[in-house]
Design goal:
The complex is a heterotrimer of chains A (164), B (443) and C (161).
Chain A (H helix, E strand, L loop, with lengths): L4 H20 L4 E5 L3 H9 L22 E5 L7 H10 L5 E5 L1 H5 L20 E3 L6 H17 L5 H7 L1
Parallel strand pairs in A: 1-2, 2-3, 3-4
Helix pairs in contact in A: 1-5, 2-5
Chain B lengths: L5 H4 L6 E5 L11 E7 L2 E8 L7 H5 L8 H5 L6 H16 L5 H29 L3 H22 L8 E2 L2 E2 L7 H23 L3 H7 L7 H7 L4 H5 L6 H4 L20 H22 L17 H8 L19 H7 L11 H6 L1 H11 L10 E8 L4 E8 L5 E7 L2 H6 L1 H5 L7 H8 L3 H4 L2
Antiparallel strand pairs in B: 1-2, 2-3, 4-5, 6-7, 7-8
Helix pairs in contact in B: 4-5, 5-6, 5-12, 5-19, 6-7, 7-12, 12-19
Chain C lengths: L1 H13 L4 E5 L6 E4 L4 H10 L6 E9 L7 E9 L4 E9 L5 E3 L8 H12 L2 E3 L37
Parallel strand pairs in C: 2-5, 6-7
Antiparallel strand pairs in C: 1-2, 3-4, 4-5
Helix pairs in contact in C: 1-2
Classes of the chains: A alpha/beta (164), B mainly alpha (443), C alpha/beta (161).
């Protein structure tokens, strides 16, 4: 672009932060609910422990319009290909939260039917332990995800052109 | 290579095969409904389950009777205490032990709170899918108040692991009367609002009236129980038919519907919630005095153990609040007196060798609860119907076979018949009104 | 009790020789029948004086040490009279098969599919005997005692976390 490298860095990092700020405060999530943690997800999403005040209010019931895949509940071997398909249907940038002990590591179920953690199927950004986790833990994890989103290198075209 | 599904094999010329996939947007979990459509009309359907098969029955064969209680919570996860209750009753029938009065009353109180939260969640989801998002938020609000009561008593909002074999884990917390009164007040207010929002709502009525109709004989043939069966007009409630615990002491009605359609299932659940609140109101005054707390004065456990080495320690041992429910003074009221099958009181475990041995043996592999050989079937009224446990014991500390008779299986199995010939949009309220909980169905 | 002996005597009259044992452990009336006579016994229970209009439960228990390895357990329920009845029958280890109850009770469809899936018992006359819980490619029957509890069969290749 003809800019001095030091000026370009300031510009790009600020743009990065702005994009991060925008992305972290408006996250459309897809609640991939299978089991008991769904009840705590419902509690977290409703009036008492609102996730809307963190910017996560819009539940898009389709992965194609979501940024965040909230894997809530146990993932069984039969369900794993569907989870993979849903993850691949999401557009970049996308994040995954493994909600609940079963999604994190299989939880109390170590048997022939359960995948020992969602990270064996898709990459995960934030893990929420608990069986089920309290809604406050869910809110804490959302804040952690927001910090992560802010810190990551936002994927934007200018940078791609410069590096490619 | 997977064999094609029956719906694929029998598909008609020109029809459209659509998947209502295992990732259901309406927080029902993971059920796959394959539809053969002619436009919006359903010609045929096939349901595939098993997406939440968590090997509950196989796991129970590898866990001791005490340990597998945690897995029962996760069966019908919206009313976990009822599952605990059913398991405890089945084991008590097998062991032949009785439960003290106070424990029975606590069990009834918590089961009814669980039942109300189950129905609130079911109707919240059903209404939300029909578009009534307000009802969802209102019901969740009421549920929080009920879960507050459950949390203060049991320590957990949902998966409580509280109703144990021989009694309950601990006594009620000191402020439970106020908390329960607040819960009842909020729930009644919410129910009044929901009645106002949905009962005469033209949209809700046109989506649920005469949709998903099931006749009485057909419902019995399908093995329906619970609110769904009662919506067809048959007044079968396990609490009335085979009274368990302390239910025979309380006055409550069993609401029935007429037509067996979705609206009747909605109304039956609404009325049942009122009856459950009525039971709770009758139970609470029976706890006349507040729950006993361990006396503040007393020896620290380490000091008590040390002192008991020379002679048996008779003074009160001051226990940590985490161990509430394990004090000797409380145990006589909340746990069975049969020492073989319940945990010994903590004072005894700290100060006497017999208590210590009893404590170890309760948890050691190969020891602990070892019922006599035989099998038992025992059922309670779950949120969806007759929740039955069939336990086969071979005399060891683990069940030989534990089978759950889940009330959701007949409901979902009959869905194929209920939606045939109807529109796609009719699946949503029909599915919602049945309250399919996959933890119970897939086990 | 009178009603119970009523049911049993009617059963003995309609399907002679089917009932092998009768007992009532812990108050649950239980009968053990010959496997071949399951359908007639079930039909007699449904139409007879007992009026067992509901098939509550259908399950299987695996006793690998016995020659008759699989014990099928059926629970019937009569709404009139509020009675439950347990019917057991024993099937051999090699090719366990029993008549399907789908013509009598529609719920037997899924319950038998579950027993087939988890134990490998075949139901003769079942319209669509397909696994209910496990995926089609699953090899083995998980609830049998010789199936290891933790033997996983992933459907898709899993990544290392």
């Amino acid at each position: 672009m003809g800019l001095n490298p030091f000026q370009a860095a300031w510009f790009t990092t600020t743009l990065n932060s702005m994009l991060g700020w925008g992305r972290k405060y408006s996250v459309f999530h897809y609640p991939y609910v299978t089991a008991c943690c769904g009840m705590e997800y419902m509690s977290a999403a409703c009036a008492h422990f609102d996730i809307d005040r963190f910017g996560f209010g819009w539940t898009r019931f389709t992965p194609r319009q979501s940024d965040l895949l909230l894997v809530v509940g146990t993932i069984c071997q039969k369900q794993a290909p569907i989870l993979r398909t849903v993850y691949e249907q999401m557009c970049e940038p996308k994040w995954v939260i493994a909600f609940g002990a079963c999604a994190v590591s299989g939880g109390i179920y170590d048997n022939y039917a359960v995948v020992q953690g969602v990270d064996r199927v898709i990459p995960v950004d934030v893990f929420i332990p608990g069986c089920p986790p309290r809604p406050e833990m869910v809110l804490d994890s959302l804040v952690k995800l927001q910090k992560k989103i802010q810190k990551t290198d936002q994927d934007w075209r200018w940078k791609k052109k410069a590096t490619s | 290579m997977t064999r094609p599904f029956r719906i694929q094999q029998n598909a008609r010329e020109g029809s459209l095969l659509v998947n209502m996939g295992p990732s259901h947007p309406a927080t029902h979990g993971a059920v796959r409904i394959m539809l053969e459509l002619d436009g919006e009309r359903i010609l045929n359907s096939e349901i595939e389950v098993g997406y939440l098969h968590r090997a509950f029955e196989k796991t129970c064969e590898n866990r001791t009777y005490f340990n597998l209680l945690i897995y029962t919570d996760r069966l019908n996860y919206v009313s976990p205490l009822i599952n605990n209750h059913g398991y405890a009753l089945a084991m008590e029938k097998l062991l032949g032990i009785d439960v003290p009065e106070r424990a029975k009353l606590i069990r009834v109180l918590l089961s009814e709170l669980s039942r109300v939260s189950d129905h609130l969640t079911c109707l919240a989801a059903m209404a939300m899918e029909c578009g009534a998002f307000t009802v969802f938020l209102y019901n969740m609000k009421a549920r929080e108040f009920l879960w507050d009561v459950i949390e203060q008593t049991t320590g957990a909002r949902m998966t409580t692991n509280f109703i144990r074999i021989g009694g309950v884990r601990a006594d009620l917390h000191p402020g439970f009367k106020e908390a329960t009164a607040a819960g009842l007040r909020e729930t009644r207010a919410v129910l009044k609002d929901v009645h106002g929002l949905l009962d005469k709502n033209k949209i809700f009525l046109s989506r649920t009236r005469d949709v998903g109709v099931m006749s009485r004989e057909n419902a019995l043939n399908w093995g329906w129980t619970g609110p769904a069966l009662r919506s067809t007009g048959i007044a079968y409630d396990v609490r009335k038919a085979f009274p368990f615990g302390a239910y025979d002491r309380f006055e409550f009605e069993v609401p029935v519907g007429e037509r067996g359609d979705n609206f009747d299932r909605y109304m039956v659940r609404m009325r049942e919630m009122e009856q459950s609140l009525r039971i709770i109101e009758q139970v609470v005054p029976l706890f006349e005095r507040s729950c006993p707390r361990v006396a503040a004065a007393g020896l620290e456990p380490a000091a008590a153990v040390k002192a008991s080495r020379s002679r048996r320690q008779e003074a009160t041992v001051k226990l940590s609040p985490n161990l509430e429910g394990a004090e000797r003074s409380v145990q006589s009221e909340i746990l069975s007196s049969d020492r073989r099958y319940v945990m010994p009181a903590k004072e005894e475990a700290y100060t006497s060798i017999e208590g210590l041995i009893a404590h170890f043996k309760y948890f050691m592999t190969g020891h602990g609860i070892r019922p006599p050989k035989g099998d038992v079937y025992s059922a309670v009224e779950g949120g969806n119907g007759e929740l039955g446990y069939y336990i086969v014991s071979d005399g060891t500390d683990r069940p030989y076979r534990l089978h759950l008779r889940g009330p959701c299986l007949p409901l979902l199995a009959s869905l194929e018949e209920l939606i045939r010939g109807r529109l796609v949009a009719d699946i949503i309220p029909t599915f919602g009104s049945m309250n399919i909980i996959l933890g119970e169905l897939d086990r | 009790m009178e009603e119970k002996s009523d049911v049993l005597s009617d059963l003995a009259a309609r399907v002679p020789g089917a009932v092998l044992e009768t007992s009532a452990p812990l108050g649950d009336l239980t009968i053990v029948i010959r496997p071949e006579s399951l359908f007639e016994v079930a039909a007699a229970l449904k139409d007879g004086p007992g009026g067992f209009a509901t098939l509550l439960d259908l399950t299987c228990v695996d006793f690998p040490d016995r020659p008759d390895r699989f014990e099928m357990v059926y629970h019937f329920f009569a709404l009139s009279g509020l009675r439950r009845l347990r019917v057991k029958l024993r099937l051999p280890a090699s090719e366990p098969a029993v008549a399907s109850l789908t013509p009598l009770w529609k719920i037997a469809d899924w319950m038998e599919r579950e027993a087939y899936d988890l134990f490998g018992v075949t139901f003769i006359g079942h319209p669509y005997l397909r696994r209910l819980f496990m995926n089609e490619e699953f090899v083995g029957h998980p609830l049998r005692k010789d199936y290891p509890w933790r033997k996983r069969q992933p459907v898709i290749p899993l990544r290392t976390p």
